[in-house]
# Entry
Amino acid sequence: MNKLHLVEDKINAVEYKHRLTKKTKKALLNTYFNRREDIQKLSLEVIEKHDFEAEVKRYVHNLEKVEIINKNVVKLERHAYAPEMNCLHFKSGLQLKVSQETELNSAIVHCAKMYTLETIQNTVRQ
# Structure
């Protein structure tokens, strides 16, 4: 069996009830397809041991955080001489630090990686 097909089967076999699961699986399949040469170099044992369910769940939660941030972000405050003070401002009036990030999209992704879902939800709700 082709190793890429094995990866596809494992991802498609993940049953996780969330509104973003289908979008997540599609994105992961696309990522693995783009790295198919690397996948072919892996041993079957490594592919079998990989926890695709955990990967799908992590990706879903990260995607959820990005969506929440996108809906509620107002602006990215950038400091030319003190980039460690850069922060995202939200509709709620609160802000989250995104040190060194100078582009809005990369700041949103950074924020989603650095902060928990609860922190982000609390920030946008207040």
